[in-house]
Structure formats: structure tokens, C-alpha cells
Amino acid sequence: MKLYRLNRLFNAKSNRCFDVAVDHGFFNERGFLQGIENLEKCVRTLVEAAPDAIQLTVGQAHYLQSLPGRQKPSLVLRTDVANVYGNQLPRTLFSRMIEQPVEQALRLDATCVVVNLFRIPEQPEVTDQCIQNILRIKPECDRIGMPLMIEPLVFQSNQKAGGYMVDGDLEKILPLVRQAVELGADIIKADPTDDVSLYHKVVEISGRIPVLVRGGGKAPDKEILERTENLIKQGAAGIVYGRNIIQHSDPAGMTRALMSIVHDGANAKDAAKFIQA
After folding, report:
1. What span, in angstroms and rounded, lies between the C-alpha atoms of 189 and 153?
2. What's the mean pLDDT when you consider all of the chain?
3. Tens-digit pLDDT profile for residues 87-127
């Protein structure tokens, strides 16, 4: 049954996936809301651009699933909420999973569920909570036939980076990605490496599990398109981008540009033609 849902998630032409993440409101950070203040409008714009999937929360999934027709993107349901972002972290950090996550995903006709696996300096308790979340949801995903996407995230020190800053150190990413595979991921959603030419090592350590690459922080168009082109060449099975689309002046154009790279093998220069200046 997982295969049936995976067939709805991955593009039949390229066997790759482009998932647009707009679940940022779950994390209680004002800066994450830029571009998605009106989420209904944002979702409609993305649906018209036709990515393979849109990542949403239990409270916002209706904006996608209530739209008529069979051709809309698949729903990837975010199942956990955390308070680990921001320039000033609270006294106690947490990562909590929604109740009955797989049942809620079924009711919302989701194609996949996603859960975090954090590695945060000096915060092993948060990693423990993430592992407990995964151990709890994995058997339910297997019983129901719901694909499980695990998102291994390596953070830089908050004192050093000042907020939500991923660490692109390959030596830190590889063991966390492998742990996600060992815990039973059907899909990996992983950080980009600082040196994109080494990303094949992340793909290798994942074995047969497809790797979708996160977009990370906001970056210039040229950098994002060239990075995506190189990641696909390194064997990535797709991308999960958020702020580089939803905070873009032309989110539909950026979506189409990235789709041309992911599904059609376009280079960054040709893909940029889809974006309106």
C-alpha cells in the first residue's frame, strides 16, 4: 500500500518529487510567516504551478484538499511541532507529535507524513523526543501503508548562528541521515551539504531510500537554481523547498523553474527563464 501512495508522490516521468513546504506557521516564528500570511492564496498559487506535493499542517491542509479536481498536488502532512527556532531559544526545548498522526493523515487523504529528527548542539533531550516520535509513528505507518518521511536536521550552535541555521557539514549530516534510515524512513528529507559535489555520499548512505533535499535559508535565484541542478546530478530524488518559493516575488515562476530542473533535466540558465523579473 505504501507503493500506491508513493506513486502519487513521485512524478511518473522523472521518478522524482518536488514538494513545496508551507508548514512554517507550526513553529511559532514571525519571520517564517513572510509570504504565507494569506495561506489560502499561497496554496492556490502553488496549485496552479503544479508541483508534485505541498507540505501542510493539520490545521491548514483543507486549503489544498478542499479544491475540486483530481490533478492537484499530493498532500504531505507535517506531524510534529517544535520550538527550536529563533534568535533567542526558550528555557526548555521540545518536539511534540500530534495525536493519532496517521489516522489524521488518512482523514485528510495525505500521501505521506513527515517528522523531524533534530541534532542540536547541547540539546540531546530534543533528539530523544524526536526518536520517540519516530518510534511511535513508524508502526502505524507500516500498519496503514502510509509512507514516512524523516527529516534529519543538523543545527549550528544558536550562539554562533543566531537562530535556525543548518549545518552543512557532511560529517555531521551522514550519521544523522543514516540513523533516519535505520529508524525506518521511506523517504529522507535532508540538508544540503556545504560542498554540493559531495552530496552523492548522502545518497549513498541512504541506500535504497530516496533523498529529497531541503532548501535551507533564503538565497538568490541563481544560487538556488545552480545548487538544485547540481544536487539532481548528484543523485537526489527531488527537493523540498519552502521559503525560496513562498517568499519569492514570483512563487509560481520559481516553482516552474525548479520543476524544469527536477523533472526535465534543465540547466539553471534555462530554468531561470520561467521566472518573471
Report:
1. 9
2. 93
3. 788 899 999 999 999 999 999 999 999 999 999 998 999 99
CA distance 258 to 245: 10
* Residue in this structure with the C-alpha cell 516521468, named with its chain if needed: 13
Q: Torsion angle, CA of 11/55/35/151, rounded to 10 degrees?
A: -100
**Which residue(s) pair with 149 in the sheet?**
114, 187
Let me know if 199 is exposed, middle or buried by CB neighbors in 10 A (0-12, 13-18, 19+): buried
Is 192 exposed, middle or buried, given 0-12, 13-18 or 19+ CB atoms closer than 10 A?
A: buried
Domain 2-274 has CATH 3.20.20.70: yes
Rounded Cα distance, 163 and 216, in Å:
13
Specify whether the CB–CB gap between 154 and 119 falls below 8 A.
Answer: yes
Whole-model pTM: value is: 0.95
Reported as half-sphere exposure (CB side, CA atoms, 13 A), residue 179 has a value of 19
Report residue 162's pLDDT band, with 50, 70 and 90 as the boundaries. Answer: low
Q: Taking phi first (over 0 means left), then psi (-120 to 50 degrees means alpha), and beta for anything else, what does residue 38 get? A: beta
Query: Do 78 and 23 touch, CB atoms closer than 8 A?
Result: yes
